[in-house]
């Protein structure tokens, strides 16, 4: 009896499938715990680099680094923008001129760059300047203002002449306004 071509091909396919499964099973697998440990080590290393770079500047800038989330927050609204406006104050421009080139140089290092998928500029506002508005109007007005502010900061940073990583920055930096939520 002759074996049909289709039966022979099916048999060969099963043999190749078993070989493939055996090959995959024999490959060393990285455990998810190892991946998590590597990620945490990278975050800790990045935090330490940022802390070493900015530890003396943070109090002067009234800023801090959140170690868990790697967020750098500037806390003094009087330094940042005019109340109810999206114009960056001169002192905040000076801070950005000093801070950002050093910050992006650290993030763009070979060991960190592949792991960074988003650098977020967040803007928050208060309702103090929005006196004669309903809650809804105040929220929407603050949302517009916070988005304009983050857009202004992003534009200011992208126009800096000292920055070497423009293309990488454009791929990874986003500007997000949160109104008075998440403040």
In short, what is this structure?
The protein is mainly alpha-helical and 183 residues long. The chain is built from 7 helices and 4 strands. A two-stranded antiparallel ribbon has the order 1-2.
Layout: helices, strands, pairs:
Blueprint: H1 5-26, H2 32-54, H3 57-61, E1 63-66, E2 71-74, H4 77-80, H5 90-107, E3 119-123, H6 135-158, H7 166-172, E4 173-177
Parallel strand pairs: 3-4
Antiparallel strand pairs: 1-2
Helix pairs in contact: 2-5
Structure description:
This protein is mainly alpha-helical and 183 residues long. Helix content is 56%, strand content 10%. It has seven helices and four strands. The strands form two sheets. The protein has a two-stranded antiparallel ribbon with strand order 1-2. The protein is elongated.
Q: Outline, from the CA principal axes?
A: elongated
Q: How large is the radius of gyration?
A: 26 Å
Instruction: Return the string of H and E elements.
Output: HHHEEHHEHHE
Q: Helicity level, as a percent range?
A: 55-70%
Overall pLDDT metric: 83
Structural class of the secondary structure composition?
Answer: mainly alpha
Main β-sheet, spatial strand arrangement: 1-2
Major sheet: size, sense and barrel closure? Answer: 2 strands, antiparallel
Number of strands: 4
Low-confidence stretches: none
Number of helices: 7
Strand content: 5-15%
Instruction: Indicate the multimeric state.
Output: single chain
- Ends apart, CA distance between termini: 80 Å
